[in-house]
Specification:
Blueprint lengths: L3 H10 L1 H11 L137 E3 L7 E3 L4 H6 L2
Antiparallel strand pairs: 1-2
Helix pairs in contact: 1-2
Length: 187
């Protein structure tokens, strides 16, 4: 469960107070990290928050505003992020394994070296996202918008994909047979 003090600061005092407190208390000598495991932050405005290396595993962030947030190295395994705004968020090296990112807004997000294995990315907006070195093995990206993504060295073993949109507007649908997406875009 989430640390009560951490949860109270982010919810009651807001992002500026959280970022200041985190810098003073969690990044100092004790090197503890934010513990927000299983927290319900659905719909919260967490724009530009500092959640570097935070434990948000199993947290509910449905429809949360995480625009421009720093989630570098954060544990978001099994987190619920459906329809969350993660535009320009830095999720590099984050653990998003088995996370629910249905219809999440991830355009221009940095997902370099992120673990998205088994994640649900159905209808996610990934336009201009950096997926270089990301692990999407076993993820479901059906209906995702993939315009201008960076995908160097991504891992897509067993990826599930019936169709995606490669155009900027998300209007031109390209369909795939089982295993065809992996076969075509593995490298």
């Amino acid at each position: 469960m989430a640390d009560k003090e951490h949860l109270e600061i982010i919810i009651q005092q807001g992002v500026p107070a959280w970022n200041k407190w985190k810098k003073e208390h969690l990044m100092g000598a004790d090197l503890r990290e934010a513990d927000l495991r299983g927290a319900d932050l659905s719909g919260a405005n967490l724009s530009h928050s500092d959640f570097r290396n935070a434990n948000l595993s199993g947290a509910s962030l449905v429809k949360a505003n995480l625009r421009g947030a720093s989630l570098i190295g954060a544990d978001l395994g099994k987190a619920k992020l459906g329809e969350a705004d993660l535009v320009f968020a830095d999720l590099s090296c984050a653990d998003l394994s088995a996370a629910d990112l249905r219809e999440a807004y991830l355009s221009n997000a940095d997902l370099n070296s992120a673990d998205l294995s088994g994640a649900n990315l159905i209808s996610a907006d990934l336009r201009c996202a950096d997926l270089g070195n990301a692990n999407l093995s076993g993820a479901n990206i059906a209906g995702a918008r993939l315009y201008s993504i960076k995908k160097d060295n991504w891992k897509i073993n067993g990826i599930k994909c019936d169709y995606v949109y490669w155009d900027e507007e998300g209007e031109i649908r390209e369909g795939f047979r089982s295993g065809e997406f992996e076969e075509m875009y593995k490298r």
